[in-house]
Design goal:
Number of strands: 28
Radius of gyration: 36 Å
Helix content: 25-40%
Distance between the termini: 149 Å
Largest sheet: 7 strands, mixed
Oligomer: single chain
Strand content: 15-25%
Number of helices: 23
Shape: elongated
Length: 670
Amino acid sequence: MRAAPVGTKNKKRIALGFLIVAVLLLLLTFRVAYWQIIKGEWLTEKAIAQQTQDTPIEAKRGAIYDRNGKELATSITCYTLWARPAQVKTQKGKTITAEQIAAIASQIAEITGRDAETVQTNLTKSTALVRIASNLDKETADAVRALKLNGLELAEGTKRYYPLGNFASQLLGSVSADNTGRAGIELEYDQYLAGVSGRWKKNTDLLGNELVEGAEEYHEAQDGYNVVLSLDEAIQYYVEKALEKGMEKTKAKRIMCLVMNPKTGEILASATTPGYDPNEPMDSKNVPEAQAEAYEKMSADEKQSYLISLWRNPVISDTYEPGSTFKLLTSSSALEEKVIDTHTTFQCAGSFTVAGVRLHCWTRGSHGTQTIRQAIGNSCNPALAKVATLMGKQTFYKYLGLYGITEKTGVDYPGEAGSIMYALKDVGPVELATIGYGQSISVTPIQLLTAVNAIGNDGVLLQPHYVKALTDSDGKVVKEFEPTIVRKVLSAKTAKEMRSIMQYVVDEGGGGNARIAGYRVGGKTGTANKIDAGTGKYGKDYYSSFIGMAPMDDPQVSILVVVDSPRGSYYGSMVAAPIAKEILTDTLRYLNVTPTYSASEKKAIEGNYTIVPNVIGKPFSEAAGIIGGKELKYSRPKSAQDDDEFTVVDQYPKAGTKVKKNSVVYVYKE
């Protein structure tokens, strides 16, 4: 029986069906080719990611020690929670819903203290590995493990910890959330402290379980080096204690202090008040009580900026007008250049004219005829203006360059500022005169103390540094930082003459409040108007400072104290010198510097008596320093409670009177 012929209509249907199948097969072929060829490499990576567990191993950040091995910054064990989103979607062999993932996110957030929404977003990312939380303690990590969730991994790591809290905070700096240095020594030496992270790779099944026969690679982390500072924890403590007391007494905006070894360039202490706790650098508890009310009125961005400003180390990063402390550089330069000698005399009538501009001495009276020793002891502006004029701007700027004032010191610390000064071509007679006594020029504290250190080091300028050495995890020294000679600035003869002048300032001049019985302390006070940020002109606030060293026959320690905007008394002799005295007293005893008492000092110690000095005719601020140098207190008249610039016309007890130490000397004005 013959089959019925296929009709035209059926033929068309068969042809259409065949065409559809052919097209589908062709599309399937292209699709397979797309995934196998074009997306093949991507699929391979995805497969490897699902079958390989790659856990980062954090390197232990090196510790920071003081010069005697006292731990100032260390790393404590903590845990980082990682998630593999692709594996989190599968729990107990089954794919879970979005609602279940949200529930898991809530559990994790509750345990770790993180935001649930953020955790959920991370758990649903398309990346192979995502960090959920860091710096978790062991208790929190154990709670996460107890959840027994697929796709979660805990990596043991370290967290930065500063055991002394707000101690040397601006010096040490702090680290970011990922343990990277972001300020201070932590930033400057980050490449040494950080180390090199390791990894642990192993083959796993779909649920993340390790395969018995799977391959495994373990790349051990390389711990960072330890940093050994030149800083001495005991001296730093003396400094911070004295600055805290100074803040209470002066009500200043801030107080800065540097203590160095003038013969090595080592920084023994470095502090600024107020500080902050580097364990919680962005916590509002770091805000000083005096600023709390203003802080609360700030916007969120302003609060953040303010807290970050507390990290700043102004002894390195800020400039200020040094005032009369700069006279040490002016006078030493002139002595070295032989423009003057120790017998050259100068006249002071209280004011003087330079190029038609009237300039004034700091006192309302006059100093009369004086040698350079007496002029520095009197802190006489006309005399030092004359010294600068005698040198001329070319010579003066040459010595400022030798002293390092025209360049950065190169200290091993981030964000060092440079001085602010006139270009040589812009220096006229008035500018030259004012620079001579420390005005119209701004320097950093580290620049000034480094320069003056050359006087204590027989004229040799050294580069300042914070770090002595780097050590490995076994304590073995891998790199040592030796003193670096920059250049010769003065002859040993000139340096010796200047040390004698500095001692005279403390023994007989206005720096008496830094005098310490049994120790030969030398120094210079300074008081300089601050520029008002609003007007760009000199305002009513001051920088009050003292720079010095001891003992002057063999300097072991140098110091600079800068009091920013003190309230009430503002002269350096009355504000900064007493702070320096307290620090030097503790430091010299700590360093076992043997005191040597003069006959009069021995007699005074044995009888607890001292002799009242003659301060009649002296400006009050200078008189206060001289009285303090004899271990006496002073009292100003009621009519001059807020006046530090009157001339003393009488005193009680009279000069030469033998009185007990800490007795009060009353001074009077017209």
